[in-house]
UniProtKB/TrEMBL annotation:
This is FAS1 domain-containing protein. Coiled coil: none annotated. GO terms for cellular component: extracellular space. SUPFAM superfamilies: FAS1 domain. Signal peptide: none annotated. SMART domains: FAS1. Residues 178-310, 314-445 form the FAS1 domain. Gene3D superfamilies: FAS1 domain (2.30.180.10).
Amino acid sequence: MTKTRSLYFMGHEQDGEMFNAVSSDANELGAFIFQNHGTAAGTTVELGEFEAGSTLHFAYLVTNGSGGAPTGSLFRTDVEADTNYFAIGDTRSDEASLFTRLGIEDIRNPAHSDFDYNDLIVDVRTTAIPEIAMKTIITGAIASSVLITAPALAQCGGSDYAHKSNATVSTVANASQGKDIVDTAVAAGSFNTLAAALKAAGLVDALKGDGPFTVFAPTDDAFAKLPAGTVESLLKPENKDQLVSILTYHVVPANVMAKDVVKLNTATTLNGQRADIEVRNGNVFVDNAQVIKTDIAASNGTIHVIDSVILPESSNVVETAQSAGTFNTLIAAAKAAGLADFLMNEGPITVFAPTDEAFAKLPTGTVESLLKPENKGKLADILKYHVVNGRVYADQAVKAGSAATLLGKDVTISTKGGAKVNNANLVATDIEASNGVIHVVDSVLLPS
């Protein structure tokens, strides 16, 4: 048995009557619950008792608006196109109840909205009733402080802001029975390939752990976009390490809600590499995958759905340098010093990589001398002075101000007169490799 009630977002005292005049599905959706202006913050409404597993849908009505949300616009959580306008917030629980916060954004034009989904906020509280059902109470956490009115919307016409979010609230028997990330994905029915990949990679137990985790979850359709045979190949036991690398690149070891994701430029993943985050025309992208649904709550974190599989850098430091074509002297020096295997197989490491032009700035004959077998130790010391243990990104390096190298001596990082390592200019930063990160310098660093 599923019973549905709806939350109507109202602007004036007479909006209840106006709703009946402009909406043809008032009887279908259920009773009026909250009024935007007339209902005080903290008001509670008891919705009734439902069987565990029932789904509650909510709606709000714009009864005095224009532009992106004209008068009579009704937005419902059970309509896919309307889910842009709702966001699920933090889920919390006490001994008796599970609380889920639902936020609504009433201005969806990127030029005028702050997209904080706090124009109407309600808490959905579900309480277990032994062997029977759930008692659900809606509490108005904040009476709307930004009212949809004709003057406000007159300034924000144009297309709606496409911020995808999941806004269906499902009752559960009690907080302790809430699904973790893996079970939530399996129950959704559209992440079968992801679930199979997690099992093949041996990551199921990890993602069923305490967390918190944020998972950028590719759908089955997203995996299907990979070249033919890719998924089948990745699922083979001999490719387990590669599969683990890819899957952990989709996981952030923190609970990052959509409202926080849009404030980021990057996110550090369990893989160790950073994924790029960008907002384009109101849509959020992780690398080149678009986020199509957000804030799916699980007991140990949050799921954001993406439309493509994101792939971490698979080339190691040496391979990455080779493909660039401007580090031939550095690679030759690493081989001569016996450090090439280390740079290929160990990690994570950070390399301040001098270009061929940087080596050419050394006094005539210096490079040729260093490459001689009898100078192998001296060459190794110079190269070790360019390598730091751990994956240290540029912002972290600048904040630290110095870094201990493999040689045991520190290099100094500063931004005075431009970003520098000692006296060498940083000309490119944060070049990802499978086992570390590369920062390009325009001079060879020489230990004192």
